[in-house]
Write a structure and sequence with these properties.
204 residues, mainly alpha, two-stranded antiparallel ribbon, globular
Length: 204
């Protein structure tokens, strides 16, 4: 029997947000090969890739949010995994059209996927060089800490948006719209990261 004056131990971030962190680790376990080749106009090609991926993400997320109530809540983790998989492939394809696939690492992927949603990542991995951003590669322990921070941020967002899954159709439409917007933000981050160094190389 617990003593009433003894506080219960609070779960760590890994325990409280374990399923989300585990999903993140699966997504970042490997870098997918690009389904693209270097393009003469990479900015235009990247925009087309982004739009296709965003539409796919919206359809996936909106469809999984259609079941109302508890059934809808059960689709949250599969939804996250499929969306992050879609975004992961999109980032790889964008690096491909810039001819930079060999440079894409797990830390680059982490930065592109979550820079807009977890600003702490910017301070942890991105350093402004003389003319462009430089992504610092994280060690295994630092990457784990970053995933914990992202897990907290994602959990809070999901808690705030959970009510939408109880509203048939309208809720699914809102979830799909957010997936579209989120995917476009990921694409914008990847494109900005690559465009700076591409312009620098072209001017050399």
């Amino acid at each position: 029997m617990e003593h009433p004056l003894v506080p219960r131990p609070q779960p760590s971030n890994d325990e409280a947000h374990g399923p989300i962190i585990a999903t993140l680790e699966r997504v970042l376990a490997d870098i997918p090969a690009p389904a693209t080749t270097r393009a003469e106009l990479p900015e235009h090609a990247a925009k087309a890739i982004a739009r296709r991926a965003a539409k796919r993400a919206a359809v996936l997320s909106g469809s999984l949010a259609l079941p109302p109530g508890p059934l809808g809540l059960m689709t949250v983790l599969p939804d996250l995994y499929l969306i992050w998989q879609t975004q992961r492939q999109m980032v790889s394809d964008i690096f491909g059209v810039y001819g930079r696939s060999a440079e894409l690492t797990r830390t680059h992927m982490l930065y592109c996927l979550f820079r807009h949603a977890a600003s702490q990542i910017v301070r942890d991995v991105a350093v402004r060089g003389t003319q462009r951003l430089v992504i610092q590669q994280l060690s295994g322990s630092a990457l784990r800490n970053a995933l914990g921070t992202i897990g907290v941020s994602v959990s809070r967002r999901l808690a705030g948006n959970a009510t939408g899954r109880w509203i048939p159709l309208a809720g699914a439409a809102a979830v799909g719209a957010y997936a579209y917007w989120d995917t476009m933000q990921v694409a914008n981050t990847a494109t900005r990261l690559l465009a700076e160094s591409h312009a620098e190389t072209a001017a050399a």
